Amino acid sequence: MKYCPKCGGPMFPVKKGKTIYLKCRRCGYEMKATEKDLKKYKVVHKTDEKEKVVTTKVISQVRKASASPDELERAKEEYYELVLDQLGEYGE
Ligand SMILES: [Zn+2]
Q1: Cα 10 to ligand 1 centre (Å)
Q2: Distance, CA 14 to ligand 1 centroid (Å)?
């Protein structure tokens, strides 16, 4: 747990876009969270390890079962189309 340098209140992680900030619940003070800071928030970010492992296992089993070479090729094409579309938008 990290405490606010201004008022000493408890600070909690807030996600803004890709950056995670620590925000004071008491006075609203915000500071950019470093990875080191976030390690103190294991409880907040905790996912059930057992559940996580099971989920990962299930996903890889599904992938193995369903991903034929054809499907992989199609997935690749879709990915490239998506990238090109985005680049096109940037160009305009
Ligand atoms: Zn504060």
Answers
A1: 7
A2: 14
